[in-house]
Amino acid sequence: MTSDAVIVDGYVDEPACLGVAPYISPYVRAVAGVLREHGHSTRYVTIDQLRADPGLVASLGGADLVVMIAGLTVPGAYLGGKPTTLTEIQQIGSLLRAPATVIGGPIAFGYSPQGGRKAIEEAVSGFDVMLSGSPAVALDSYLRGEAAVGRTDYALTDRWSVAGSGIIAQHPAYPHVICELETATGCPRALTGGCSFCTEPLYGPPTYRSVEGIADEVAALHRAGARHFRLGRQPDLLTYGATGGEFPAPRPDLIGELFSAVRKSAPALKTLHIDNINPGTIARHEDASRAALEVIVAGHTPGDVAAFGMETADPAVVAANNLKAMPEEVFRAIEIVNEVGAKRRDGVPELLPGLNFVIGLAGETPGTFDLNEAFLRRVLEAGLLVRRVNIRQLMPFPGTPAYDRHTLGMHNARFRSFKEWTRKYFDGPMLRRVFPAGTVLCDVIVEVPGTPSFGRQMGSYPILVGIPLPLPARTVLDAVVVDWGMRSVTALPCPVPINTLPVGTLRWIPSVGRRKAAAIAAKRPFKNREEFRAVAGTTPIDDLLVF
Looking at the predicted structure, is the pLDDT value of residue 196 above 70? Predict the structure, then answer.
């Protein structure tokens, strides 16, 4: 099959944008709209599809134009897809000699293969054109015969986002696709440099998208079959539409208007989550932030995560890198989000903070890691809830202060021990606190089949769920938590079918174990709960068993 134009989604991950499957980035959808406006029919493929079927690469040569979107400016760990590598980008570019080839996205900032490595400038070869700035605006300029450069212009991209919304139906995970929604680009702290490592200030001061523009796109996506959304392409959702200095006060009224508009535009939505929240905003504007968080909880779906760019618990490192918040401010922000969001709905907390640490920043010493551990210990001892802790090594990009000022490689052993300490002494206890035995996780989608099979819910930073059964990919089921790993939970299908589960799966029922599992299997089938209890005793999930 050939088409007039092809979009190759190499996936993107930036401080304020995620486009790794099952997420689809706003860049891809706006580019699809540009191509449609210029009269192209468009085919969409992901880098994972090209890896699985190398023959697809050759078929791209039948197109008149190939546009690739790619680039990482933050390192991450991924389950649903693997971002394209520089080698793959160059191989694809070199194989596509007949059509015009264009590449854009964060790759324009440079390329680094992983955290702990400096990005390489001008690293992409094999493509005819590099789109600079907004991929959609730059592509439109290129197709009109002008320079392939463009600043964000929502007067243009809003209509392209609507026009390109139907591209989501070509995503291999459709309809289980999360549409990352752009609300703003740029950083309120851009004029003072922002955080030393972050690429968002390179976009300049904030440009906010209108509620109407976002709502129109959501309506178009909803018509195209989208049911999962994240207000994720922004550095701090609390300051949406706000003005006034580096830390503008939130506007709860405008945030409420935004959530209401999204809900109205997508009445059948199943997921509405957020991403970045600046803890410095909360600490400096407690009342307005609390009100804004309450509006978010009223308008979203539960199991949501507010990602805090904490980076470090070392005040000296905060100062040396112009970071957003001191450790005490972050702690206070965690408390406030817990006050508003720790209540449970559908069995899970409404909204919890997630913490991001960045290792390798200027000013870091071995004592920095001691302070990080002490901070996490304090969170545990205070009885607070945190959904997850990400620990990343710095990925310095040209144009950021961290490119020349960093401590990469200086404390590798201490970095590894801090990471191991966090997984063992913080993540494990916290998972038990956030997802106690008996927690029902609705609509878990199997992404990795096998025994166990692994799946996740749709949303921001969903917990990895191991199910000790062989299940086909794309199976959707409710699951009840029965055990915990360091960064995952073990769960059984819910309700739990006692009479049909394999004996090796029965042992995962709390208080059962291997010996009782064999006895249960020998006495099956059970007619009711009383017969089961006579053999197995009571379990914490008795109410979820079926016979």
Answer: yes
- Token readout for 10 is 């190499």
* pTM tops 0.85: yes
Range of the domain at 522: 499-547
- Could you identify the residue written with the tokens 């959609």? 136
Q: Are 115 and 259 part of one and the same domain?
A: no
Task: Please tell me the total count of domains within the chain.
Answer: 4
Residues with Cβ within 8 Å of residue 130, at least 6 apart in sequence? 102, 103, 104, 107, 108, 124, 148
Compute the half-sphere exposure of residue 80: CA atoms within 13 Å on the CB side of its CA: 28
Please state the separation of Cα 307 from the chain's center in Å: 9
Terminal C-alpha separation, the chain: 50
Structural domain includes residue 231: yes
- Per-chain mean pLDDT for the chain: 95
Backbone angles phi and psi of 271, in degrees to 5: -135, 130
The answer on 488 and 423 residing in a single domain is no
Do 128 and 34 share a structural domain?
yes
- Assess if residue 216 is contained within a domain: no
Give the length of the chain.
Answer: 547
CA distances from 407 to 360, 374, 398 (A): 5, 21, 16
Residue with tokens 């309450």: 294
Q: Give the model confidence (pLDDT) of 502-538 as tens digits.
A: 999 999 999 999 999 999 999 999 999 999 999 999 9
